[in-house]
Each structure stands twice: as C-alpha cells, then as structure tokens.
Specification:
By secondary structure, the protein is an alpha+beta fold. The protein is built from 15 helices and 16 strands. Strands 1-5-6-11-10-9-7-8 form an 8-stranded mixed beta sheet. It has a 5-stranded mixed beta sheet with strand order 13-12-14-15-16, with helices on both faces. A 3-stranded antiparallel beta sheet has the order 2-4-3. The longest helix is centred in the N-terminal third of the chain and has 20 residues. The chain is elongated. It starts with a helix and ends in an 8-residue tail after the last strand. The structure holds histidyl-adenosine monophosphate. Histidyl-adenosine monophosphate binds next to strand 6, strand 10, strand 11 and helix 12.
Length: 418
C-alpha cells in the first residue's frame, strides 16, 4: 500500500509552498537568457532511443546505465530524455531552424530522467534550465555562453561562482590525446574496473570520468588534454580566455574537466560554487559540440550551450540565503454572516478578481470567528465583514490586518481596495 502514498525513489513533489520559488527561478533564468537573444523552445519528454545513443554517446554512463528506456505499444523503443541538447538538436533539424537567421539561440526549462543513485542533490527526475546556440564557431560565441552562465547565477544571487573551463580540442587533437591515454592506462590494466577496461577499448576519454575512487586515483595522473591541442584549438581557447578576462568573468582553467557526454569538442566548462564549509557544488555545465548536428544527419553546424540542475541550484541558493520574492498574499478577505451576505461576498470577490486583486470569501460555511481566524492564516492584508446591517447600508468597514485601522468601503461596484 505504501506505493499508493509514496512517490517513486528519486522523484520529488514540488508543493504549493515551494512552487513560488521555482516560478521565480525559472522565469529569472529565461528572462536573463532573453537579454542575450535566447527564446524558449519546448520539446517532447521522450524521444526515439537512438537519438540519445547517437548523440550523448553509447559508452557514456548516461546511455549505458541511466536511461529510462521502454518499448511502447507500437513496439518502438523510446527514452525519457536524460538531457535537453539532443532533443533541441533534433527539433532544430526537423523544423529547419538551422537554415534561418543564424546564430540560432534557444533556451529551455525541462524535466530530465536519469536512473541514478539518489542523494546529495541527485534525483531520477530532475529539472534543467539550459541554452543552446547554433551556427557560430567563433570564440566570441563561447565567451557569450560563458558570460550568460555566469550572469544567470549572479542574477539569482550566487555571485561567487567560478567557471572552470577546459578544451577537449578537435577530432585531430582528440586522436592524439586518445593514443596518449591508451598508453598511460595500459600500465594500469590490472587495477581498472571492468567498465573502464571496456571503455579503454571503445572510448578511452570516458575512463577519466569513472566514479570509482580507485580509477579516479589512476586517472588523476593521466596526461592533460591541454598538452595535445593543435595550434587552432590552442588559439581558440586563448581567445575565449582573453574575452572572459576582458569582461571580468571569473574563470579558472581546469584540465581534468572532460564532461560525461560524448558530443563535446573544444571548450567545456562547469559552474562551480564553493560553499562556506568548502564544499564544491557544480551548479551546471556545458560546452561546444562540433559534430552533433552532422551525427544526426544535418550539415556540419557548430553548437554550444549549457544546462544547470535546478534542484541543486535552489538548494545552493537557500543555503546561501539568496533572497526570493515574497508570495503574493490574499489582498482582501470578504467575511460574511448569513446567506445573502455570503452571496454578496462572492459577487464582490468576483468583481475584485476581475480587476486583478486577489480576494477570497467563505466556502466552508464557517462562523464569523472561524472566518477571521482563516483570514489571519491566509495573511490577508484587509478584511471586510458583511452582515445584515452592511448589506442594507451598502457599506462596510475595511480593516487593515496590519494596523487594525478601519475605513468605510462600498459593498457594490464602487468597492475600492487599496
Ligand atoms: P550535464 O552535466 O549532464 O549536462 O547536466 C547538467 C546539469 O544537470 C548538471 O550540472 C547538474 O546540475 C544537473 N543534473 C544532472 N544529473 C542530475 C541528477 N540526476 N539530479 C539532479 N541534477 C542533475 C547536460 O545535460 C548537457 N546537456 C548540458 C549542455 C547543454 N551542454 C551543451 N548544451
């Protein structure tokens, strides 16, 4: 029976008392991105499974271990999206958005699904805010995306975030780097986990983001990708950094960042917040992807973007004491005694709501005393009591719940609430 009253492991209800914070966060992020020209795109919750194995990469943890994949009634394999980049790329191709005025800039607020071990901000259903920019190969585009990532976090009150950046180079750099990794890890064959041994054959870069502590220790001594960048990739990375420095955006080069998804080329990054007790919190990450659109059958088109996990972001904001706008309270509670007064309270509430004022009246048949108690619970700013006398006079008293002050108020179309 617990299944009927307990949400599945790794999922979380967002209760009415919390949803205001979510609305604030999501709208602030969308609005900040809109200042850079990003417009919202909404994509399906599930896609053909192949989309993710092709783009995210079939040797990644996400594809190998974490996808919610099932066969639907039409015998098709579909997957609940583990992230947004692949779906957005598919939509851009399907609707010919990459032939329009470039760069294409889109933003999204989505739920994602990964079968992960829940804990420390990890869920099986979680929320991401993300952006994707297509068509610009220049370091200027990287800097703009990095600036937006920083700006988003600053806008919600996390001003001390640092961008940790790295470059994964182009296909050529990667080829040389992969050789160096194979040579390095070969020496540790006896100590690597089974998955990593497989990865060493199929995609050695993935060994670097194994979560197994012993493998991580070995990976710490691996060669750095930065020593294998070709001249063009080096120049690109230098230019990105010069622009960040010029714009005063805090960043640090972190050669160990490889990211857990396969589509990245050149610039990759994570947005890192350090809590007062020294804990490193990754609020989000992203990077450039050169081959993704081609992999999905389109013309070669550069893309770059990032996504942040909203659960972790909200938890960090709360821990850091970031401000949230107060919930809009009930402006006026129309208390009533007797049936005719109840009908009038309802009419006046409807009138006020149409004028954009939040108003509530009794729906429970409560006594006046109980209605006043309820108005207090709602933190109503004003209360009007409507009884027989008030009905006859067409006038009542508007009481401020803050000061206790009362002022006369009309109980017809002429009603005015401050
Ligand atoms: P990602 O690093 O896999 O990148 O995910 C981005 C963020 O989503 C993470 O930094 C984290 O905050 C959050 N996240 C990931 N998994 C979970 C989870 N199980 N529970 C809670 N939060 C989670 C991507 O998804 C790329 N699509 C980002 C991107 C966009 N790259 C280019 N464009």
């Amino acid at each position: 029976m617990a299944y009927l009253t307990t949400a599945p492991r790794g999922t979380k209800d967002i209760l009415p008392s919390e949803s205001g914070r979510w609305q604030y966060l999501e709208s602030t992020l969308l609005r900040t991105a809109a200042r850079y020209g990003f417009r919202e795109i909404r994509i399906p919750t599930f896609e053909h499974t192949e989309l993710f194995s092709r783009s995210v990469g079939d040797t990644t943890d996400v594809v190998q271990k974490e996808m919610y994949t099932f066969t639907d009634k039409g015998d098709r394999s579909v997957t609940l999206r583990p992230e947004g980049t692949a779906g957005v790329a598919r939509a851009a191709l399907e609707h010919g958005l990459l032939g329009d005025a470039l760069p294409l800039k889109v933003s999204y607020n989505i739920t994602c699904f990964r079968y992960e071990k829940p804990g420390s901000g990890r869920y099986r259903e979680f929320h991401q805010f993300g952006v994707e920019l297509y068509g610009a190969a220049s370091p200027a585009a990287d800097s703009e995306i990095l600036a937006l990532a920083y700006h988003c976090l600053k806008e919600v009150g996390l001003g001390s975030v640092v961008l940790e950046i790295n470059s994964l180079g182009c296909r050529e750099c990667r080829k040389r780097y992969t050789q160096a990794l194979i040579q390095y890890f070969d020496r540790y064959r006896g100590q690597l986990c089974g998955t990593c041994l497989e990865r060493l054959e199929k995609n050695p870069l993935r060994v670097l983001d194994c979560k197994n502590p012993e493998d991580q220790r070995i990976a710490a001594g691996a060669p750095s990708i930065l020593d294998y960048l070709c001249d063009n990739c080096q120049e690109h990375f230098r230019e990105v950094q010069a622009r960040l420095t010029e714009a005063g955006i805090p960043y640090r080069v972190e050669p160990t960042i490889v990211r857990g998804l396969d589509y990245y080329t050149r610039t990759v990054f994570e947005m890192v917040h350090t809590s007062p007790n020294g804990e490193r919190v990754v609020c989000g990450g992203g990077g450039r992807y050169g081959g993704l659109i081609e992999e999905l059958g389109g013309n070669p088109t550069e893309g770059i973007g990032f996504a942040m996990g909203l659960e972790r972001l909200l938890a960090t904001m709360t821990a850091e004491g970031c401000g949230f706008p107060p919930e809009e309270p009930c402006q006026v509670y129309l208390a009533s005694m007797g049936e005719s007064a109840g009908v009038r309270a309802f009419r006046l509430a409807s009138l006020l709501r149409e004028r954009g004022i939040s108003a509530q009246c009794d729906l429970m048949g409560r006594s006046l005393k109980a209605q006043m108690k309820y108005a207090n619970k709602l933190k109503a700013r004003y209360v009007v009591v409507i009884g027989e006398d008030e009905l006859q006079k067409g006038e009542g008293l508007l009481k401020s719940m803050d000061t206790g002050e009362t002022t006369p108020v009309r109980l017809d179309e002429g009603i005015q609430i401050p």
